[in-house]
Fold each of these.
Amino acid sequence: MNKKLSETFSAQINKEYFSAFLYLGMSNWFNQKGLRGMANWTYVQYQEELAHAQNLHHYMQYRNESVTLSQIDDPSGSWQSPLEVFRHVLKHEQYVTESINNLATVALKANDHAAYNFMQWYVSEQVEEEANANDIIDRLVLSGDNSNALLMIDDQLGARTFAAPVVPGLPAGA
Ligand code: OFO
């Protein structure tokens, strides 16, 4: 793997861990507001981000590449409402989409088709991540100031469960 590609993978691993921390912070915020369903949804998102980071890391190990681990930024946010949190989710995922696309482009430019293929799962995953955030934002906007509607959305988000993602291109059991 060329140096630039390897460094871009390492940077992406750091971003995925940052994403995990950001969602953990959001989960804590929702929990403090008594919105347990949203706390659950963001906690499941935290678990997903950890899996994203771990799978990138497994991939680098599979390719016998070293990973540079660096400090994770402080993810604390000061949100005023659930809508503001989910708008932050969308903005953050759009940023991650750009970063994932960039990693795939670096792989392609390096003529590393294996890495490019591996990244395609992440490319598709970002479509889902942005769609999920958009969907929740739409429902929160529709609910307006109606606390019954808010609690209904909270209930729905409480049903989300974590399923470890299966990413093609990794050895079995990774
Ligand atoms: Fe939220 O996305 Fe990871 O990759």
Amino acid sequence: MSTFNCVLLNLLLVFSSLGHARTGVAIDPDKAQAYTPAPENLKARERFQDNKFGIFLHWGLYSQLGGVGSPYGAEWIMEDLRISGPKYKRLAEFFNPTGFDSEQWVKAFKDAGAKYIVITSKHHDGFAMYDSKVSNFDIVDSTPYKKDPIKELANSAHKHGLQLFFYYSQLDWHHPDYYPWGRTGHYTKREKSGDWEKYLQFQDAQLKELLTQYGPIGGIWFDGWWDQEDSHNWDNWQLQRTYKMIHELQPATLIVNNHHRFTVPGEDYQGFEQQLPTNQERLGKLPLEMAQTMNGSWGFSLTDDNYKTTKELVQTLVSAAGRNANYLLNTGPMPNGKIQPENLKTFAEIGQWLKVFGKSIYGTRGGPISPQNWGVSTHNNESIFIHILNWQADTLSIELATPIKSAINLKSSKPVNFKQLEGVITLENLKFENEEYVQVIELTLKPND
Ligand code: JFZ
């Protein structure tokens, strides 16, 4: 990142922290520095938005501990329980996910209606779930399993038409050169020294492996930037250098960074974690994605049964689509390599819903009606879809000037009576025809003559 841009970013951060972001200076870091996405990249952004629904996978050494005693989530157990590096390393000695079957995974994700997968290639613990040549702390070199599950997953995903993305943690609790330490990782018993630049070289070397050995990669989902936030060492990360390398290796790979800030040049979409993109002052012009857990943990939890219902998940998927955002639903595979049966059941239920209602989700964009108390809307070139999430009356009036030819209930395909007068459309005799989650009305547009 250039000094100039860093000053801008600093200013922006100061303004946001004062709560003045909306009234503050109109700084748009998207424009602050030249980044011209390649044509392949722009095309990939469209495809990404058309795809709408992905599966997030948090899987690593930590999965073996089932998050027991870890308040934040299973993948944070090393930090939460203050496990030292040498002790944590032992988890590799008995990590043997012999039940892993990439074909079964991909089948389950396809049955759910997902179009892409984001998997943890390396989480904060620093353990690579693929065969890394620049580290021995990886699944092939240091576990009895000795195989590369990411390779198998890439093969199956590509064979069955799913895109593969990699989550990559910039923060690293294992690497000796991750120094200065940030906010976390103070109990690892590492030396209090290290060569930051060497760490970045290592990080970029791993990213290069991921982008050259697994076929086309849909995106890199960065996380952990925030670890260096307190020391204000934002430019330590050399984001521009790393982003440039990624786009040179694969121009269509989309970059997202879970830094909970406005997007930085070089990023191709904007992520929101555990919340709908409603925070207006942070909303940019890039494609959006909301990531969410099914219970409270990203990694496999043995004790957290606080699952959201399928209805809640589908309603969130719809609410995200209505806000022009993708939905990335997380599951934490078990240490044996299997997906939790509870989650498989939920995936199948979501898939059933998408089989009937997918037309109102895939390939659409949010709007034209902004989110309302009753629900949201999506649209494509032919239709506007009204997603009623919360409405009990049998008449619903919506401001809509676009001329409508016909209205049908998407589930029953039966016509819905409507009147359109002075920029307001009124849907009449709305009946919930056994819709469990959402009532969807398809409004077909009058063709332009
Ligand atoms: C991060 C990870 O720490 C977590 O383990 C998981 O992978 C998730 C998807 O991403 O979680 C974060 C990151 C940043 C903040 C909060 C949670 N933050 O800045 O508030």
